[in-house]
Amino acid sequence: MNNYVKTALAVALSACTFSMAVAQDKVISVGLNGDIRSTDPGVNRDDNTDAVMMHIVEGLVAYREDTSVAPMLASAVAVSPDGLRYTFTLRDGVHFQNGQLLTAKDVQWTWQRYLDPKTQWRCLAEFDGRGAAKIVDVAAPDANTVVFTLDQANGLFLAAMARPDCAGSGILHPDSLAADGSWRAPIGTGPFTLGKWQKGQYVELERFKAYSPRAEATADGYTGNKQAFVDKVRFEVIPDSASAKAALLSGGVDLLPDVTAMDAAQLKQVKNLQVQVSPIMTISGLLFQTRDPLLKDVRIRRAVALSLDYSQMVAALSDGLSVPNNSIIPTASPYYDSTAHQGYTYNLDEARRLLKEAGYRGEKIRMLVNKRYPQMFDMGLLSQAMTQAAGLNIEMETLEWGTQLERYQTGSYQMMSFSYSGRFDAAQSYESVIGDKDKEPRKVWDNPEALAILREAQREVDPAKRRPLFDQLHTLMLKDVPMVVIYNGTAIGVMGKRVEGYRSWPVAKPRLWGVKLADTSK
Amino acid sequence: MAVPTLLLISVIVFALIRLIPGDPALLMLGDMADPQSLADMRSSLGLDHSVVTQYLIWIKSVLSGDLGVSISSRQPVLDLLVERFSVSATVVLVAVLLATLLAVPVGLLAAWKQNSAMDLGLVVTATLLLSVPSFWLGLLLLYVFGIQLGWLPVIGYVGFGSDPMKALTYVVLPIVTLTLVEFGAIARMARASTIEVLRLEYIAHARAKGLSEGAVLWKHALRNAFAPTWTLIGLILGNLLGGIAVLETVFTLPGIGRLMVDAIFSRDYPVLQGCLLLITCIYVLVNLLVDLLYPLFDPRVKL
Amino acid sequence: MNLKTPALPGVAAIPPRRRRRYPPLNALIGGGLLAALVLLALLGVVWTPYDPLKLDLLSRLHAPNAVHWLGTDEFGRDVFSRLIIGARTSLWISLLSVSVAVVCGTLIGMLAGYLRGWTDRILMMLNDALLAFPGILMALGIMAIVGASQYGIVLALGIAYTPSVVRVVRGSVLSLRELEFIEASRVIGNSELYTMFRHITPNCLAPLCVLATSMFGWALLSESALSFLGLGVPPPAATWGSMLSASRTYISNAPWLGIFPGIFISLTLLAINLFGDALRDRLDPRMRK
């Protein structure tokens, strides 16, 4: 009886898997920890949306593997000596996914749409003069040339344009909109087209057969030769990390692009899996409220910084995959140099001395953490335990992520364990922490001197002149201790053995072009 | 009675979720939010009105049949509800039905043979099942059947409309888990109420008339003993829909419980309001239905 | 108090105690188990094999062995020690939440049942509304508002369970208040308030006790469910629920992390169920043999 049931079940199940294998050709399924928000690139978006949309659309420029910026749809970019005019020459013979040829008019149309406040483009503030320079004009003098004119020089113009959260300022065909101007579906130039989106369950992408790749030999970050080899990519929505792991183990998905270090250590031991690691640009650390009655004393902040055993902590948090970094400039950045490498040295005696000098008597310090992002939680937990040795009395308070974000935004906290999402330019990294607390309470480092240096670095286009400015900022920041940067995260992709050619990279988003599936017919 | 309750609930829900710090605009913009884009986003979501105005706008559109659009996915809330509800309802209904069909006869038999080895066995099993957290049981089953044996898919869901066989493989484990857990509660209730009924005079009377034990049990005992069990089943049904969120998290089922939890975390006000409206409607309806059907099972109660 | 009221489901209605040589088996096992668990919780106050909060990053995820009887967790903390102090936190949280629910629920229920009229109608409408609300979601919402502290959970669960108590208490009050001895108390000139507390409260106790025991079980379960959904007791404190929910990431390579807290939760629930059964048998005249 029991055996009969077992056999029947086994037959039924194998019949299912068999029919699946016959019906489809090369489909790679990828775990995604949440559904996409929309198919409107850079407008109604989040990390997952960006990751999926970057397969469908492409911008004029894009990030290389090392997070420098290179042309993508453009074949060349020329900047006028005053830094106000950017001339993009488009590549020939690039097709949209509806078969139309890409022209300068499409670029102009796309940018006019992005710059229209009604579109609610995520990155509008970067281009309308609020954050940086303002785009005064986008012109299309001929079918292959687009000229952008700015009102002032901006060293970050191209870098902002390439940002994945702006969807790389992806160029769209006007037919992406319905006749009434509402959003229909993305028609881009990318190596995949949008297939079926079953909300809350999966998003399918199909290979764009008439894709026009660049001439380079291989893919390079978000640019290079982005030829796709799989017929379909199926992003499976699996919110729960334990379930995602189970799915990978049972072969339900081929690839998890972003697992925690601890999970990776565990999955590495499974025979049929391979792991791909890359440092990324997220900045993780402890934030202080420098206006707090207790923490306004730099000696106490410094004591916290000195009581952390960085190497042991980071080894545990990243399972040996990351290195400690006390600089706001990520280790993967081209600006991470010997000055940025200098940090705090673990020294409990000095920490105790500072605390004594500051008259600290075990007053309670509350540190906010959340459970949405396990590494923030673990970082808080380890810090709490380590600072105890120096006599600090830190108490953790777990908040729901949205609540913690609100506290971050309003600056109402003593300490929090926090991660900044990846910024790809050193100036952007500093920009996220430096500012006037009266105007923007979320900024952790309120120092006019630092702000002045930052402004200079933002205007400067020449990397050689920017470097000393960043070094200066780092030295100042180590002295002020408005926060303790602890490390930069890692992107760890884990995949089945049949996946070939997948790489993790500092931008931390999965890329499924260039990926092949080996034939492992059982 | 039901209408003021629903209205009251809508007010409570509306106020409660806005008390949760953080708002959808903030969550969408994350750590990069500057004050200007935050304000823009808030006004585009209609969050710049006062809460009272927001409520009036919402209730007005609900009365005209429009539940609004999800903030995070931009999907109409009604579509979302129908889609997610059907998943949860399938699992819950099948599981409760299975549990009832198994538990009531077993409870009846155990009561009939009260204090026998079989009775003891049932009581112990039922109590044990009742004492296992459903998600723990779910995890164990997932581990054994999904990972170790590899018989069943571990994640995902396929609608019954598209591929019934495949759909079945996805819901087997959640259904089994729920059935086991609810079996305990229902069997105990069935046993207890049957014991009570069997002690009544009319059963002795029926026996004295020379009816077979089977007839006594089936015709007389079951009919009366089922009434309290029926109430319990109604209670279970009403509560499960809200309580299934954890199980849906374990099995990654796109059900309504998960939808609500996600909506709380992303402050997706319209979705949460819609969900709770639906859940409470169902709760009220199920209770009404149980009350209406009660006389069918308990001849002592006449409407 | 010695009036004959056979249909009354109250303490007063219990006829002279029948002499039993042994207490029933379920009370024995349930009570014994509960006592053992409480002892374990108390033990945690004075002794644990290791410091349950001490991180040891060099011995993470060790399987049960002679040094760590039940293994270590992802931070190298001793699982057995955490289970012991977890017993205290878990049981304490459940106990407190049930107390909050019982106190609030009794007050509201008595008010509604005794005053009747408009007060009753409005209170019950509110109560029904809250009852229709999925408890775990309400708790989740409250936790998101007040923050995930130990007392946040107590408050959240307490509020979530109050409506059931209100129901039961009001029901008992309504059926009690027409009885002769209550009437008598009023006739001899006792005030309403006096009558309520002197006579009605004790008589609600039986159904309340039964409800409270099952609520204790629910609270224990809900605490772990809340952890599971991401809002549990804040670290570094341990509860069985938070241990269980943290373990699910390691279910394939460190199953001991989940199995032991799971067993302890189940044992407690078992004890509570058995004890509750015994209590019901004792207090509910209809269930006696």
From TrEMBL, chain A:
Solute-binding protein family domain segment(s): 69-430
Superkingdom assignment: Bacteria
GO cellular component: ATP-binding cassette (ABC) transporter complex; outer membrane-bounded periplasmic space
UniProt signal peptide: 1-23
InterPro entries: Peptide/Ni-bd, SBP_5, SBP_5_dom
Gene3D superfamilies attached to this UniProt entry: Dipeptide-binding Protein, Domain 1, Dipeptide-binding Protein, Domain 3, Periplasmic binding protein-like II
Stated name of the protein: Peptide ABC transporter substrate-binding protein
Source organism: Pseudomonas libanensis
UniProtKB/TrEMBL annotation, chain B:
One Pfam family this sequence matches: BPD_transp_1_N
Annotated membrane topology: Multi-pass membrane protein
Domain ABC transmembrane type-1 as annotated: residue spans: 85-294
Subcellular location: Cell membrane
PROSITE patterns named in the record: ABC_TM1
Keyword match Cell membrane: yes
TM annotation in the entry: 85-110, 122-147, 167-190, 229-251, 271-294
UniProt cross-references to InterPro entries, sorted A to Z: BPD_transp_1_N, MetI-like, MetI-like_sf
Claim: DNA-binding is one of the keywords in the record: no
Location, primary (coarse class): membrane
UniProt keyword annotations, A-Z: Cell membrane, Membrane, Transmembrane, Transmembrane helix, Transport
GO BP, one annotated term: transmembrane transport
Family: Belongs to the binding-protein-dependent transport system permease family. OppBC subfamily.
UniProt name for this protein: Dipeptide transport system permease protein DppB
Organism: Pseudomonas synxantha
TrEMBL record, chain C:
InterPro entries for this protein: BP-dependent_transpt_permease (IPR050366), MetI-like (IPR000515), MetI-like_sf (IPR035906)
A Pfam family annotated for this UniProt entry: BPD_transp_1
Keywords, sorted A to Z: Cell membrane, Membrane, Transmembrane, Transmembrane helix, Transport
Domain of life: Bacteria
Subcellular location: Cell membrane
CDD domains per UniProt: TM_PBP2
GO cellular component, one term: plasma membrane
Mode of membrane association: Multi-pass membrane protein
Parts of the chain that traverse the membrane: 27-50, 91-115, 122-145, 151-169, 204-221, 256-279
GO biological process, one term: transmembrane transport
Ranges where the ABC transmembrane type-1 domain occurs: 87-276
Family membership: Belongs to the binding-protein-dependent transport system permease family.
Name of the protein this chain belongs to: Peptide ABC transporter permease
Source organism of the structure: Pseudomonas libanensis
